[in-house]
Design goal:
Layout lengths: L3 E3 L9 E3 L5 E4 L6 E2 L10 E6 L2 E6 L6 E3 L2 E3 L1 E3 L4
Parallel strand pairs: 3-4
Antiparallel strand pairs: 1-2, 3-5, 5-6, 6-9, 7-8
Length: 81
């Protein structure tokens, strides 16, 4: 079964994206996999990479930060649930 992320809040509520071995990029720039239409987002804001232990969310030095459960992160291992 493929790994999927599902938006829980905000403009992405209910939207899903399938994760793969390729990086999944997020940001304002139109060539990102997930385009964020917000002045708070950087051109390349964050990305999800597959690492040995699973998928990991990385902030890409975004101006306003990347948050998981209201905590600012630079790197965060994703888990099921």
């Amino acid at each position: 079964m493929p790994s999927v992320i599902l938006g829980q809040t905000g403009p992405f509520t209910g939207q899903s994206v399938v994760l793969s071995a390729a990086p999944l990029t997020f940001g304002r720039k139109s060539d990102n996999d997930v385009v964020i239409v917000s002045a708070n987002a950087s051109r390349l804001h964050a990305e999800i990479l597959e690492e040995d232990a699973g998928f990991v969310l990385h902030d890409r030095n975004s101006r306003n930060g990347t948050f998981v459960n209201d905590q600012r992160i630079t790197r965060h291992a994703l888990r099921s649930g």
